[in-house]
Amino acid sequence: MAMKQKQQLEKWRQLFTTITTAKLITRKQFLQWSGLGSLGLVTALVGCDIFKKQTSISVAKPKYILSKDKVLGLPLWMVEFETVTVNENGTVIKRNSNNQAKLFKEDLGNNVTLEMVAIPSGNFMMGSPGREGKEDEHPQHEVTVKSFFMGKYPITQGQWRRVAALPKVKRDLKANPSRFKGDNRPVETVSWYDAVEFCSRLSKYTNREYRLPSEAEWEYACRAGTTTPFHFGETITTELANYAGNKTYASEPKGKERNQTTDVGIFPPNGFGLYDMHGNVGEWCQDNWLSNYIRAPTDGSAWLNKNDISAILRGGSWYHFPSYCRSASRFNLNKEVRGSHYKIVGFRVVCGLGKILP
For residue range 106-153, what is the model confidence (pLDDT) as tens digits? Predict the structure, then answer.
């Protein structure tokens, strides 16, 4: 009897795993649909994972369409994707399934690709409005940004390993520097100089100019036309990003405390089709650190000065409170930082339109 009951349990588990992919059922619905009379079977199924509450905000899978156009000598793809907007409680109040983005795919070999998303030119208000942020996020100022391409995700460990194997330009690179291992996890524990070396090797390999984004480009790309603290809206939850979920930003509930990086792309994208702009790993920018935006460039270029010791990071990380993951939030670290205690640091790359090297 026990073996028969176990076989029947597995049969129902498989059945309801299949029919509840899009929507989970309740215990009442299960009893109504199954018509089971075996108390033992019902008791066994009560603890089953088919009754667990859904804990992630899902969006439609992106749809890729190959266009007839080319950019920088590579085929251009059109991507259709869905975004979500949440209120101060972290509740989804809007879904937009009509988003489109253009991208090209850089072949790094061994079935490893780098997807670069087209970011349109435009104007935006950089920094925090009113009392939203810290002093270093002020004054808020208008910036004009030219179009460029940006990595769809932070650079992954799989991508890093491919480029790190290319000939050295100026600096040695470790093949596997990351603390949290996984080909689809973001590379971390890399210094600003490591990231620049990565860009140099990638540029030489592809004959296209790759570099770190300017701070203005990063924030413009993160906001994707939004003016709220996060591109998701008034707050974030751990169903939308990987950060220190034991703290809250607005009125949302506390969430998961992952204490490590997660695979890139598992959370919903922003309006430009970029993923992981909030949390996971902090991302190096070109700019040197300055403590406010007084006399900051307004053309989207990197702000460089004689202080070449520290550089800016954006986006926050798995370690940071949500306030540090806002679109306007910024922090800085020494450019030489590389130790294992800096497993919060990664980067993504940009490629300028028409920047083809000789």
Answer: 999 999 999 999 999 999 999 999 889 999 999 999 999 999 999 999
Is residue 107 domain-resident?
A: no
What is the DSSP pairing of strand 122-126 with strand 141-145? antiparallel
Q: Where are the alpha helices (DSSP H) in the chain?
A: 2-19, 27-34, 39-46, 157-164, 192-206, 215-223
- How many Å apart are CA 283 and CA 276, to the nearest integer? 10
**Residue 20 lies in domain:** 2-51
Is the pTM value of this prediction over 0.90?
A: no
Least confident of 17-21, 265-269, 293-297, 344-348: 17-21
The answer as to whether 85 is a domain residue is no
> How far, in Å, are 30, 190, 263, 320 from residue 186 at the CA level?
40, 11, 7, 16
Taking alpha carbons only, the member of 148, 178, 195, 157 closest to residue 313 is 195
User: In this structure, are 300 and 182 located in the same domain?
Assistant: yes
SS (H, E, C) 55-109: CCCCCCCCEEEEEEEEECCEEEEEEEEEEEEECCCCCEEEEEEEEEEEEEEEEEE
* Nearest CA-CA partner of 330 in 303, 295, 298: 303
Query: Residue 318 is part of a domain; what is its CATH number?
Result: 3.90.1580.10
Residue 207 dihedral angles phi and psi, to the nearest 5°? 65, 25
In a domain, residue 110? The reply is: no
Residue given tokens 């919903």 in the structure block: 268
Q: What is the pLDDT of residue 354?
A: 58
User: Quick check: 30 pLDDT over 90?
Assistant: no
The count of structural domains within the chain is 2
Residue 111 maps to a domain: no
Strands 350-356 and 148-151: antiparallel
42, 146: one domain: no
Smallest CA-to-CA distance from 268 within 281, 257, 277 is with: 277
